[in-house]
Specification:
mainly alpha, rod-shaped
Length: 117
């Protein structure tokens, strides 16, 4: 008796293969889920850091504004401080946009996990 190869129209429903496939899909879903959880904890630390830095920049800007009014600070010194604050704020804005893309990735992978489960 010759056996024909399995196809989509005539699948070979060997239950051990089906069981192994289901187990592999569950494993893949679990790995993605735990990777997302690890990523979330790292992103939470970064978010807290950026929030702290943003408030620090705001405090520096307030302090230097008062300093410039009360002290004789040269214009170039003031410009240097303002430029550095602006550069830091721009970098943080770029990081916030990257976090938004990460959030979108997490949502998509969450849908994959749900689908695999």
């Amino acid at each position: 008796m010759s056996s024909k190869p399995s196809s989509a129209a005539r699948p070979d429903l060997d239950w051990s293969q089906v069981k192994e496939t289901v187990l592999m899909l569950k494993l893949a879903a679990a790995q993605v889920k735990f990777s997302l959880q690890d990523g979330d904890s790292s992103v939470n630390v970064l978010t807290d850091s950026f929030t702290s830095m943003a408030s620090g920049i705001a405090e520096i800007e307030k302090a230097t504004a008062g300093l410039f009014e009360t002290c004789a600070v040269e214009d170039n010194q003031r410009q240097v401080i303002e430029q550095h604050c602006q550069k830091i704020a721009e970098k943080m804005h770029g990081a916030i946009i990257a976090f938004q893309f990460y959030d979108l990735l997490v949502q998509r992978l969450g849908h994959v996990v749900t689908g695999l489960s």
